[in-house]
UniProtKB/TrEMBL annotation:
Protein name per UniProt: chitinase
Gene Ontology biological process terms in this record: polysaccharide catabolic process
EC number(s) from the headed UniProt entry: 3.2.1.14
Class of the enzyme per the UniProt entry, highest EC level: hydrolase
Organism (species): Streptomyces griseoviridis
One Pfam entry name: fn3
Keyword tRNA processing: no
Domain GH18, residue spans: 268-601
Domain of life: Bacteria
UniProtKB keywords: Carbohydrate metabolism, Glycosidase, Hydrolase, Polysaccharide degradation, Signal
Amino acid sequence: MDRFRPVLAVLTAALLAVPGITALSSAARAADADLARNGGFETGLDGWTCPAGTTVNTPVHSGGSALRATPAGSDNAQCAQRVTVRPDSQYTLSGYVRGSYVYLGASGTGTTDVSTWTQSAPDWQRLTTTFRTGPATSSVTIYTHGWYGTGAYYADDLTLTGPGVDAGQPPAAPTGLRTGTVTSTSVALSWTAVPGATGYAVYRDGVKTQTAGGTSATVTGLTAATAYSFQVTATNDTGESARSATVTATTATGSGGGDGGSSGLPAHALVGYLHASFANGSGYTRLADVPDSWDVIDLAFGEPTSVTSGDIRFDRCPVTECPTVESDADFKAAIKAKQAAGKKVLISIGGANGQVQLTTTAARDTFVSSVSKIIDEYGLDGLDIDFEGHSLSLNTGDTDFRNPTTPVVVNLISALKTLKARYGARFVLTMAPETFFVQMGYQYYGTGKWGGQDPRCGAYLPVIHALRDDLTLLHVQDYNSGPIMGLDNQYHSMGGADFHTAMTDMLLTGFPVAGDPDNVFPPLRPDQVAIGMPASVNAGNGYVAPAEVTKSLDCLTKRTGCGTYTPHGTWPALRGLMTWSVNWDRFAGWEFQRMFDGYFG
């Protein structure tokens, strides 16, 4: 079409010179509008989210600037922009790219997401694709990205052509507001999407309490056995709609799911792993010698007889490896003594060497029976899931964390729900995933819509979500981690207060999975979250000094002393800290324990 534009310009000028012919209508101009902001990157990265990108002066396709982005490791250097569009409308996305394996696409279209790519473009090459928005779609995300380990790519003159959205009008009020899961401290809400809305606000008893990017939200921090009213509004760049109709919900009494006070944990808890089945450089620590500061003691580890058997065994450290190990009778007596003092003793399943894949329902059932046998034999309070490595991954096409289809995920969820139902409300269930399996889900989820991503990325999210009303504590391992993007769309690296603050804020605020504003992982309650970190420099990569831990706690619970990252809320009810491990803390002179005692008292 480019070669016809001079002719069209001449014809248009001629028509305008004829009496009675006026300028094109605003509707016609809107149909040809370019909705992409700063598509030529002439004002830097304004309007774009490009963590691995920058602008350069050469090479450029036109103008004075272009995008240069460099994939590295598990990052494909995506550069994305969210654009407001009209529902049920046709759009054309195009742009010029250089490099190898460069992609241009659109997601969140409400119909079929599209992408196009070039394997090799030594000079500028035009990519173009079209799509139609769904009947309720008010925004889409356009993006360009490279491929893992293929070097830098360039992009310039990106356009999204199609009907614009009339300015000057806020969206209509949402309809279809309804309640979902109700616990003693939270109420889940959902509603129908509003055309033209770019976000939503949630009102509780007439007061705005939070915002949401998609059509669902979970209101947390509520009081048990209390009635609440809720409304939502829709927002865009122009303003806020009228409020929706009101729905009401009464929170549970606290005897059902979630903690609700039923777990027996103190308001602020210290969680530690005790090396019960092996020895290392930290030395063996008898359970009876664990100080009273530790509120939850995770016995590490129960491991499977084979990766897919589901048959979990807990073998205590042999005397040949741990000369000071206590007898079984003394070990069981120590468990009872800890419980009498108000402590919780759990069996932790997995660890770095204990890969567990429940690929079949038979493995699921064996998991339930074998874990139950361990809990019953030692009289334990519950279970910690510490699946690492390749225990959890998502099959191709499993893209919705709310409705998982991968057997290892579905079977684990079923097994944990069965155990929770078997032992009742006081059963303590905790999880200790790595950041790659949780917070990395903000950028990537499973193999992705186009394949090629690590299938383990974000794989814990469906498990956490399905068990959120049964989950006592989530303490993500903020260590042995690569850089992770926070909600500020900046990468954060372990080793300082900001990393803990950013990672914890994601759990307490919620986040769109794989950047999809219509697929939001809801926040957890603050009493369900503890921060995981190494006890000493010997325990793992990512150790931070006590002063840095204090900074992060101050920022999250008081919103004071924050560094470069500012959290989205203040959570004085944050449950506490988890550490690897009790043994390593003893080796380091109990520094971690003293810091916790000094902060929480």
